[in-house]
Specification:
heterotrimer, A alpha/beta, B alpha/beta, C alpha/beta, A: alpha/beta, Rossmann fold, six-stranded parallel beta sheet, 51% helix, C: alpha/beta, four-stranded parallel beta sheet, 8 strands, LutB/LldF (chain A), metal ion binding (chain A), transport (chain A), iron (chain A)
């Protein structure tokens, strides 16, 4: 696990914004994905009803997850799947390793699983001498660069084709200066094909697990999860317990929403339903808690567990688009990451709920109607109460509270005495004030509105007329 | 206490006391549109292609004309034995790595997203539609249904070990959002719409 | 609206002190539209700056003061969607919660008050300029003053409906119709880099549509955009929607 000092979101965002052209490109590219999502959503007359339905299914799941898990395990076992339970990241990693060790295998091919990012599985297995190759193209690229993914659906969206070309030239021996995405993708295809053909263990994530049937669904566009799983002797599928849905027919709702929300596609290229292992082969499922049951108990935040990891909230987030996924220093970035991360570690992630203007666009694009921006607001309250904000800020806020509750102090006469003027960042004209770095302050009028009102209101005029 | 018991106990303590109702799905999927036309349009939009055919002979003729028959072509459809081999279902799946074209028949297709539903009993081998360079899928025109809701009604309690919806060729846009067909799976998908 | 309704004019603290002209325009406009308007002198701030920073627990004094100043009015009207949203969502008082609940329902943003309560759909103002409307997030997504582009739902916009009837006003259609400007309260200083970038991009969209003015329903967003415009020495000006709507003689 990385013990590197965390760079706070605002600092990382400042660095990201040093390269204006790169920021513009990042913003426009993700906005383009948001627009594709809009077109797809607006093409479905039932879209809002679908979101509402998905939200209700997930509400049902969260209220009955205990029984669904028991049902799922029983059905999966009936199907010949081996089920494991992991209380936390450490246990998850140990289980995966024990399966590898049992089969005496030192190499794994892995398709996208944000859960294994959350658990830092790759680092753990590397320490145990096991080589993991990420097969999703975006993840393959960032893995070669020793970077984490910056987006849950588009892992390498922070990179330009020139960056990828350089990385592939160094690691795969592609032509220097050949930036053609077609060429670069083809070279990764050839390399990874060999990987698929030689790995005995394949690990995949899980998009949905169905209690009624004990099967699970994995969605990809590249077909990498299938290439890995169908060629390996052992398929390990890792899932947070919130991936459960009650019945097979509910997939109709979620598969209509997932890809449209994510990239604007009508569905992912492959939506693979794994129910039983091939003859003589094994499927393992690792069901992981890692803080989820704690989040389930937080009344204000339990709905975050409805997330189906489409990434729509990231694509629409004006802050994410201009700060990049790495600025969130968490496996899941963006607005959803900012409400999930504090549950995992409040002190480490105390900055994230503040990395938002609370504009609310995330909540509107969410296919399962998570009240993301309201939860960001509520996390701020919790983080302050739990003491995760700088002491100086608390002192300033307390002063402000006293003054604003007291009109007498608030209204001390005269321009220079006015409280707002001294306390609104816009007016403090000094080097310490971040407002002034790139913005002018508003000009100060001769009189405030209330001063004008005292002289010019209808009552004031009526009084004058009497005199 | 085992981790399983511990997790389930924690969940029991955390989850709400009242179980929220499941919604009615019958109100969904009543969108009115021209099913076959929509299917074709969506398929083209996601990088696939289609040919309308009256019978299997027309499929064979098309394949002869458009694919290099000297390469390895496999199928699970006996009617196509003239252009493709049938005896590969019990091979080690790794040996399918040199397959140029796999031809299979889908249970049905979905108009709204052009996805085709296939299960292991008609796949021959699970990896067959993925490992091939090109993929051809046959579907009856009468088996194109409007949306995913009808799809799952149709699947119902169907028994399978593995099933997948395939919509178009394998693709990626992970480099600068530029669409590239043929990421790891088939580089191209042709759908034979059978009368 | 029934006759003799008493309107409490709720002017955000920073508007009171920096943008009195917006308060004046709001006051005059409501009077021209036939309302009896009073500005309670003891009002300070709704408490949002603290609440959005995580210090909602410190806003009890603000809430009590707000209630003390505005309890007697039939409606409370404010030229800021953000402040209205805060009151609607968070005004509480342990000692008189019923009253607080009632007041949460009585507070309105200026344009929605005009269209929904006064039922006025046409103001005969005059503003011969090319104008971009910045839909502030709290007014739009919080109060639903206009349709949100994320949703598959029919278009409407209370402020644009009023602006479209102003003589000479040429309302442009922005490329990103409801992108946030990046003000965000204390966000504007704690996340300065992103805040400014968002503001610059918001301005760019308006520039690309050759506007003379950027208007909107929230002076806080406009203050942020104005700060950037002035630094850039841009010829584009900001103006609160109340000032445009008040551009007629009774």
């Amino acid at each position: 696990m990385s013990s590197k000092k965390i760079i706070e979101h605002s600092e990382a965002a400042t660095r990201f914004n040093k390269d204006v052209e790169r920021v513009n490109w990042h913003d426009e590219t993700l906005w383009f994905v948001r627009e594709k999502r809009d077109r797809a959503a607006h093409n479905i007359p039932d879209w809002e009803l679908l979101r509402e339905t998905a939200s209700q299914i997930k509400n049902n799941v969260l209220s009955n997850i205990h029984d669904y898990l028991v049902e799922f395990e029983a059905n999966a076992q009936k199907n010949g799947i081996i089920v494991h339970w992991a209380a936390d990241a450490k246990e998850h990693n140990e289980i995966v390793h024990s399966i590898m060790a049992k089969h005496d295998v030192k190499q794994m091919v892995k398709s996208k699983s944000m859960l294994t990012e959350e658990c830092h599985l790759n680092d753990y297995l590397a320490e145990k001498g096991i080589e993991v190759i990420d097969s999703d193209l975006g993840e393959f690229i960032v893995q070669l660069r020793k970077e984490p993914p910056s987006h849950i659906v588009l892992p390498a969206i922070h990179l330009k084709k020139e960056d990828v070309s350089e990385t592939f030239h160094e690691h795969l021996g592609t032509e220097k200066g050949n930036f053609d995405p077609q060429y670069l993708t083809e070279s990764a295809r050839l390399t990874l094909r060999n990987t698929f053909l030689t790995r005995k263990v394949a690990l995949t994530g899980v998009n949905f697990a169905i209690a009624e049937t004990g099967e699970f669904v994995v969605c990809t566009n590249e077909g990498n999860a299938d290439m890995g799983a169908h060629l390996a002797d052992v398929h390990i599928a890792c899932m947070g317990f919130e991936k459960l849905i009650p019945q097979r027919k509910h997939l109709g709702v979620f598969l209509r929403l997932l890809a449209r929300s994510a990239t604007g596609q009508p569905i992912t290229t492959f939506s693979s339903h794994f129910k039983k292992p091939r003859d003589g082969k094994e499927i393992h499922i690792v069901i992981v808690d890692n803080g989820r049951s704690t989040q389930l108990g937080r009344e204000d935040f339990k709905n975050s567990l409805k997330c189906i990891r489409c990434g729509a909230c990231m694509n629409t987030c004006p802050v994410y688009r201009r700060s990049g996924g790495h600025s969130y220093h968490n496996a899941v970035a963006g607005p959803i990451g900012a409400i999930l991360a504090p549950n995992l570690d409040m002190s480490k992630n105390a900055d994230l709920p503040f990395a938002s203007t609370l504009c609310g666009s995330c909540t509107n694009v969410c296919p399962v109607k998570i009240d993301i921006h309201d939860q960001l607001y509520k996390w701020r309250q919790v983080l302050v109460k739990e003491g995760h904000t700088p002491a100086a800020k608390t002192v300033a806020m307390k002063t402000m509270a006293t003054v604003l509750a007291n009109p007498m102090i608030f209204n001390i006469a005269g321009k220079s005495g006015r409280f707002v003027m001294k306390n609104i960042p816009a007016l403090v004209n000094n080097k310490m004030n971040k407002w002034y770095d790139q913005r002018e302050m508003p000009s100060v009028p001769e009189e405030s509105f209330r001063e004008w009102y005292k002289k010019n209101s209808r009552e004031a005029k009526a009084k004058k007329d009497e005199q | 206490m085992s981790s399983k018991d511990q997790i389930l106990q924690k969940i029991k303590n955390s989850q709400p006391n009242i179980v929220a109702d499941l919604p009615d799905l019958n109100i969904l999927g009543s969108d009115q549109f021209e099913v076959l036309d929509t299917y074709k349009t969506v398929l083209k939009n996601i990088g696939g292609d289609f040919v309308e055919v009256a019978n299997y002979d027309e499929i064979s003729a098309y394949l002869k004309q458009n694919y290099a028959l000297e390469r390895r072509i496999i199928t699970t459809v006996p009617e196509l034995s003239e252009v493709a081999v049938l005896d590969w279902k019990n091979e080690d799946p790794h040996l399918l790595q040199n397959v140029e074209l796999t031809i299979i028949k889908a249970h049905f297709g979905v108009a709204e997203n052009s996805a085709l539903w296939v299960t292991d009993d008609i796949l021959g081998q699970r990896v067959a539609p993925f490992i091939t360079q090109y993929l051809a899928i046959i579907v009856n025109k009468s088996d194109i249904i409007p949306t995913m809701h009808q799809a799952y009604e149709r699947i119902g309690n169907q028994e399978y070990g593995f099933g997948t919806f395939i919509a178009g060729p394998s693709k990626t846009a992970d480099i600068e959002q530029s669409l590239v067909l043929g990421a790891h799976g088939a580089r191209g998908l042709i759908v034979f719409l059978l009368e | 609206m029934k006759k003799n309704m008493k309107i409490g004019l709720f002017i955000p603290c920073y508007v009171d002190q920096f943008y009195p002209k917006v308060g004046i325009a709001t006051y005059e406009l409501l009077q021209k539209l036939g309302c009896e308007v009073h500005f309670p002198m003891g009002q300070t701030c709704c408490g949002q700056p603290m609440a959005n920073s995580g210090y909602q627990y410190l806003t009890k004094g603000c809430d009590a003061n707000f209630i003390a100043n505005f309890a007697g009015f039939d409606y409370i009207v404010c030229p800021s969607g953000s402040c209205v949203l805060h009151v609607k969502d968070h005004l509480h008082d342990d000692k008189q919660e019923e009253l607080a609940a009632e007041m949460r329902k009585k507070v309105f943003e200026l344009t929605e008050f005009i269209t929904d309560i006064l039922k006025v759909d046409h103001i005969n103002g005059n503003f011969p300029f090319r104008v971009g409307m910045h839909a502030s997030c709290h007014g739009q997504r919080g109060l639903k003053l206009s349709q949100m582009t994320e949703l598959n739902a029919p278009f409407f916009s209370k402020p644009e409906q009023l602006l479209s009837k102003i003589n000479g006003l040429d309302l442009v259609s922005l490329s990103r119709k409801d992108e946030c400007c990046g003000f965000g309260g204390t966000f504007c200083v704690t996340e300065e880099a992103v805040s400014v970038k968002m503001g610059q991009d918001r301005i760019k969209d308006h520039e690309n549509h050759h506007v003379d003015y950027i208007t909107g329903g929230d002076m806080s967003c406009l203050m942020h955009l104005e700060g950037i415009l002035k630094r850039q020495k841009s010829s584009i000006k900001t103006i609160h929607i109340a000032e445009i709507l008040n551009s007629f003689e009774n």
